[in-house]
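user: At home tonight, take the chain set out below, taking as long as you need, and be ready to discuss the fold:
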Amino acid sequence: MTDPAPDTDAALTADPAPDADALRERALSTLTTARDRTTLLTSCVEDPDLTAQHSPLMSPLVWDLAHIGNQEEQWLLRAVAGQEAIRPEIDSLYDAFEHPRTERPKLPLLSPAEARTYAADVRGRALDVLESTAFHGTRLTEAGFAFGMIAQHEQQHDETMLITHQLRKGPRALTAPEPEPVPLFAGPAEVLVPGGPFTMGTSDEPWALDNERPAHRREVAPFYIDTVPVTSGAYQAFIEDGGYDDPRWWAPDGWAHIRQHSVTAPLFWHRDGKQWLRRRFGVTEVVPADEPVVHVSWYEADAYARWAGRRLPTEAEWEKAARHDPAGDRPMRYPWGDADPAPEHANLGQRHLRPAPAGSYPAGESPLGVRQLIGDVWEWTASDFLPYPGFRAFPYKEYSEVFFGPEYKVLRGGSFAVAPVACRGTFRNWDYPIRRQIFSGFRTARSGDV
């Protein structure tokens, strides 16, 4: 990304923003939470693990650390406060579009100590900017958007670094409490979502990113959707039935990909006699049958759905299931309502290092009874990543506009690795359909007239 110019958009309001103290406190809290997590992810291993590239799909952890600081400097210090660059010579090193991940270990990156010092220096100055910024007048500062954008950016890189930790070989470096055990889910397998129009996207969520905007009406035919995500136990039935050996279930590109790369199970799984084991953050364990399956590609999710006589939900269907309130025509922020996520609602924020069992978090279910739409695993949808009608890139095209097209599939809902600030009913994620290192799962759907 190039150095951002100071924001010159017309003022959105002529009056001081209401609840400025509350906005400032929210911004401070989310920035602090993100930095605490970044510190955990970069302090739990020694420097050689920070500078190594653990997979060609991922950056060295030390690159992510300095990139976080550099983005914060560019947007909060330069764009919002108009300050001079601290270290302009490193901008190109941490430009994600200038250097693909495979090249980053060869760059003259800041050392771990230098990266920590730089990120801390930027943060100290950014907090001074936060104290003096009025939350009105420009699109960047309105409702503290720039601070929310940077908090979300850091948490997204924290999730990326957690993926790197999962790919890293060696002993466990991270620990977390296990999710609460729950009885085996015995509710209905699917839920009917009524047809009709609904409002998709948002125009009034203050920290929503550009691809979530604007709100617009969509017509969706009635459909059934799984009450809970597809579990590892259900996915094992697909494997045992020869799902990876039967081209009937696979999109042509997916079939070619799994044959070329000898894919026979979700990433990190291997068979030991009659049971499946997986490697999870340095520990080998039996695959838990009641847990949502994770580390599957879009092609695998699509093949399973076809094998089961179903399909993946479209992005619009997923969002209607997550935000529709049948008691009114007002879309909700989350399946449970408008309140920010709490621990009883969803498995978010790296509180656990795994998905919770299927059927967990009844307090987080939708009015129609769909569970775990937020947290646990990102859910693949059938849809390509495309702009909404009336989309406008802001504050830079490289966040999402350059990725629009059929090459990317949309994921929704977040995972156990996603922070609450970077997850809501309108939030959109996207990736190539071959990707499996991400914390991705899925649920299936079928048309309501079938």
Q: What stands out?
A: The longest strand covers residues 378-385. The chain has a mean pLDDT of 94.
